[in-house]
């Protein structure tokens, strides 16, 4: 597997874990990394803080947020000589609940930075969330954007 495939695999694992409500699993992806808003203001850093951020902010319905996160159009930009790779992606989040049809609830962009760990695998350094369009988030988030 090449570096690009490994990084795209991390993006995919993030989506799977969020959609499963696996906050510890999401946190593990950010063991050495941080979540930030679009301006770079840090929201959480490290496994436990990232897991707590998602647990605090996301509504579950029978153990799951009942969402499907899709990451598309990922472009990778190596930043040599630091060895950091920046990934620019678009995201779309869908949600369906009993009594609520499947619908898009938010779209935006991720600006992710990745670095190679000492044992050779890639890891998140930072994820910035940028929101483009919002739908009905009242059944997904416990706070307002």
Counting DSSP H or I runs of 4 or more residues, the number of helices is 3
What structural class do the secondary elements suggest?
Answer: alpha+beta
In terms of DSSP E residues, the strand content is 35-45%
Shape: globular
What is the helix/strand order?
Answer: HHEEHEEEE
Total of domains: 1
What fraction, in percent, of the residue positions are helical?
10-25%
What is the CATH architecture term?
Roll
CATH topology: Nuclear Transport Factor 2, Chain: A
Q: What is the CATH level 1 assignment?
A: Alpha Beta
For the sheet with most strands, the description reads: 6 strands, mixed
Q: Ends: how far apart?
A: 38 Å
**Low-pLDDT segments, ≥5 res:** none
Alpha-carbon Rg, integer: 15 Å
Biggest β-sheet: strands ordered side by side in the sheet: 2-1-6-5-4-3
Number-wise, the strands total 6
Secondary-structure blueprint of this entry?
Layout lengths: L2 H18 L2 H7 L4 E3 L5 E4 L1 H11 L9 E13 L4 E14 L2 E17 L5 E13 L11
Parallel strand pairs: 1-6
Antiparallel strand pairs: 1-2, 3-4, 4-5, 5-6
